[in-house]
UniProtKB/TrEMBL annotation:
The chain crosses the membrane at residues 52-74, 129-150, 156-177, 238-262, 278-296. GO terms for molecular function: ABC-type oligopeptide transporter activity; ATP binding; ATP hydrolysis activity. Residues 332-567 form the ABC transporter domain. It is found in: Cell membrane. This is Putative ABC transporter ATP-binding protein. GO terms for cellular component: plasma membrane. InterPro entries: AAA+_ATPase, ABC1_TM_dom, ABC1_TM_sf, ABC_transporter-like_ATP-bd, ABC_transporter-like_CS, P-loop_NTPase, Type_1_exporter. It comes from Blautia hansenii. Pfam families: ABC_membrane, ABC_tran. It is a multi-pass membrane protein. Its main location: membrane. Residues 16-298 form the ABC transmembrane type-1 domain. CDD domains: ABC_6TM_Tm287_like. Keywords: ATP-binding, Cell membrane, Membrane, Nucleotide-binding, Transmembrane, Transmembrane helix, Transport.
Length: 582
């Protein structure tokens, strides 16, 4: 809770106003039993109708006043809690945007979604109750005790036993219920994760007829959550019966003692009625407060989970290097880089060294899972290396501000992500204020204009979330066009040509040669045909560079590269001839 309130401040003026309104409402409610006592003692007992009507009008006026004040206080409390939740949600969203890939892997998508929606909503509901009931109930309880002692004498001593018993019962129930709160949130994360997976992979699930197996997996997680929730519910269900028993016994004791004192003449009937009202108010206040207390374990667990996000610092920190001091251009160098993913047993990259200069194309090829994509992820600092340096224009990438570093890079990831909106809006991720002329130029280079021109609304045609209404090749060309819009110094293509046919692949490579100028291109590819004309080809195996050179050089010097080429292009006698036609 402390972390949350340190990040999002409540406005003191609103809190003071709310406190004043709640205080007025409490005073109004506390005056009613006193007026009732006066009506009974001086009006009903003495048969004075004028006094009865006078107090009736006064009580009606006080009730209306209290209702108006209560309405205003509820409205302000709701506004404060809603505004608080909105600010908190913005804080969480902004924090997540700063996370590196390591922090995203740590929390997981499903958990972050739950924390920024359900958890914040729970905290908001708790804050609303705190502002509405948490302020009013203690005031009413304190005032009720004072007025009860003033009007009831020894009858009010019943509260000395009733309140401690009630508090003990509440404490036991809250402590037992709190054991389940964090567990329930984790199990909700699991349900959300499975649901998210099933939505994203619905086509694969149907293709392999795994609907029944996935339903069973979700059902097991759902049942586990339900069992835990029912266990927590059984404990919390004890609250109302406990309160009802204590409330009933206390009321019976008050009326029994009050009747005795009325018979002896030590107390007036009006005072007994007023005192019983005050005692009911005290117990009702404690009961109202118990509802807030019952929400505390869940809200505390939610607040703790939100705080974990807000307190997590990104492992990617900004440097202080000024872009004005940069003396080189479009140069990428790896110096003895070793890298392991968080929690991995061993490094995925070991002692990687190479340099890419302006206007050059550096290609990376190798077996599956050998670390090719991991090399590219270090360039825009999605991760940082364990050892060694990644130099961009002669400066360690860690010295740049991440915003400056990434502004120099056009990155096309292995998994092409498109966003809901039209084609132009997606292209403008590369250039915020891009025009239709910019779109046409970028799409032409990426060979995307071919399918865009066939759509009814052209660049204003809508794309579904994730680009699900496009084919794999269309998504790849859209992602490449988005990078071309940026016109960066460095192009990073992570297996971005895999879904293209040979003709489109060749045309796209020719377009890149003509348009990238002196920018550096670093690409991961699976096909020899895609990288045959690269200035430098790095062959990666088991996280190490085992070959470095041009296509012709590697055919002679690198057995792994030659093996890949023979598999894809044929035997030795045909290799050079086939490469010349690609």
């Amino acid at each position: 809770m402390k972390t949350i309130f340190s990040k999002v401040k409540l406005k003191s003026r609103q809190i003071i106003l709310l406190f004043a309104l709640v205080l007025l409402s409490a005073i109004g409610q506390m005056l009613l039993p006193s007026f009732l006592a006066q009506m009974i003692s001086h009006g009903v007992a003495e048969g004075e109708n004028r006094v009865i009507w006078m107090y009736a009008i006064i009580m009606a006026g006080v009730t209306v006043f209290s209702c108006i004040i209560s309405f205003l206080s509820v409205k302000i409390a709701s506004y404060i809690s809603t505004d608080f939740a909105a600010q908190l949600r913005n804080q969480v969203f902004s924090k997540v945007q700063e996370f590196s890939a390591a922090e995203m892997d740590k929390f997981g998508t499903a958990s972050l979604v739950t924390r920024s929606t359900s958890d914040i909503t729970n905290v908001q509901n708790f804050l609303t109750l705190m502002l509405r009931i948490g302020l009013l109930a203690p005031m009413m309880a304190a005032a009720g005790l004072i007025f009860s002692a003033a009007t009831g004498g020894e009858v009010s001593s019943v509260l000395l036993i009733a309140i401690p018993v009630l508090l003990i019962a509440l404490t036991v129930i809250v402590v037992l219920a709190s054991r389940y709160s964090i567990s329930l949130r984790k199990k909700l994360d699991q349900i959300n994760r499975l649901f998210l997976e099933s939505l994203e992979g619905v086509r694969v699930i149907r293709a392999f007829n795994r609907q029944k197996a996935e339903s069973e997996r979700f059902e097991n997680a759902n049942r586990d959550y339900a069992v835990t929730a029912m266990a927590a519910g059984r404990i919390t269900s004890l609250l109302m019966p406990a309160i009802s028993v204590i409330f009933g016994v206390t009321t019976a004791a008050v009326l029994g003692m009050g009747a005795y004192y009325v018979n002896t003449g030590a107390m007036e009937v009006g005072s007994l009625v007023a005192n019983s009202q005050y005692i009911s108010m005290v117990l009702t206040s404690v009961m109202m407060l118990s509802l807030v207390i019952m929400m505390f374990p869940t809200s505390y667990a939610c607040a703790k989970r939100i705080s974990e996000v807000l307190e997590t610092e990104s492992s990617i920190r900004d440097g202080k290097f000024s872009m004005k001091e940069k003396t080189m251009h479009a140069t990428v160098e790896f110096r003895h880089v070793t890298f392991a993913y968080p929690g991995a047993d061993e490094p995925i990259l070991k002692d990687i060294s190479f340099i890419s200069r302006p206007g050059e194309v550096t290609a990376i090829i190798g077996g599956t899972g050998r670390g090719k994509s991991s090399i590219l992820k270090l360039i825009p600092r999605l991760y940082d290396p364990m050892f060694g340096e990644v130099l961009i224009d002669g400066i360690n990438a860690k010295e740049y501000r991440t915003e400056d570093l990434r502004s120099m890079i056009g990155y096309v990831p292995q998994k092409n992500v498109l966003f809901s909106g039209n084609i132009g809006e997606n292209l403008n991720f590369g250039k915020e204020n891009g025009t239709e002329e910019d779109w046409e130029q970028a799409a032409g280079i990426a060979c995307a204009d071919e399918f865009i021109s066939k759509r009814k609304q052209g660049y204003y045609d809508m794309i579904a979330q994730g680009g699900t209404n496009l084919s794999g090749g269309q998504r790849q060309r859209m992602a490449i066009a988005r990078a071309m819009m940026k016109k960066p110094e460095i192009y990073v293509f992570d297996d971005s040509f895999s879904a293209l046919d040979m003709k489109t692949d060749r045309q796209l490579r020719e377009n890149l040669k003509k348009n990238i100028g002196d920018a550096t291109v670093i690409m991961v590819a699976q096909r020899i045909s895609t990288i045959v004309d690269a200035d430098r080809i790095l062959v990666v195996d088991d996280g190490q560079i085992v070959g470095n050179g041009t296509h012709e050089e590697l055919l002679k010097s690198c057995s792994l590269y030659r093996e890949i080429a023979e598999i894809q292009l044929g035997k030795e006698a045909d290799l050079n001839e086939k490469c010349n036609h690609i």
